[in-house]
Amino acid sequence: MATETEKTFALLQTFSTLSIISSLGLGLFCFIADRLFQFPFIQQNDWLRALSDNAVHGIIGMWSWAIVIGLKKKNDFGEIILAGFLASVIDVDHFLLAGSLSLKDALNLPHRPFFHCSTLIPVVVLTLKFIMHLFRLKDSWCFLPWMLFISWTSHHVRDGIRHGLWICPFGKTSPLPYWLYVTITASLPHLCSFIMYLTGTREMMSIKHGIHIDV
Ligand SMILES: [Zn+2]
């Protein structure tokens, strides 16, 4: 059980100077990456465009999780790689729906593929939390639902600047304004950390990752 001091440290870490600078850097990265991708040699090659777009999803996932955990120990990198993988792997559903490995087929689908339904995020996060509670996995794997939340939400929001958010079965929003995408992406690690603090996950994470205050 976390002490009051650990709880306070966990909350302070959520809004530390370092984490705020890191999230401003994340917003800047999104902006620069999107400018770089306007180069014709990327835009004119489908594979290059798809791979670079997917790599940005992965980097945003890794960067976001690094902000959440504070990145202090060597073994934190395993979690960060996992967050990047979760943020990137969503796009596999394009190929699953196409039933083919052809990029042309994957990009010309009759409707959006299943993992791009944003309703899935709260459903999967809450189901995972319930399963962990049921099997008493909450200490060692307590981070997983939140990692999924941040990785998948950042992916959906980034796709949302072109396609809007698909809130199945209710329909989809209009494309998100670019400023909203950057703002949500940069704020998401703090929102996630704060919810983790409120739900008690944050103290466990602070104990696991080592307490560090930088305010
Ligand atoms: Zn996508």
TrEMBL record:
InterPro entries on file: TMEM267
Keyword Cell division among UniProt keywords: no
Membrane topology value: Multi-pass membrane protein
Q: What GO cellular-component annotations does this UniProt entry give? A: membrane
Annotated keywords: Membrane, Transmembrane, Transmembrane helix
Q: Where are the transmembrane segments?
A: 12-34, 54-71, 80-101, 113-132, 178-198
> Is tRNA-binding set as a keyword in this record?
no
- Where does it mainly reside? membrane
Subcellular compartments: Membrane
Question: What protein name is recorded for this chain?
Answer: Transmembrane protein 267
Lineage start: Eukaryota, Metazoa, Chordata, Craniata, Vertebrata
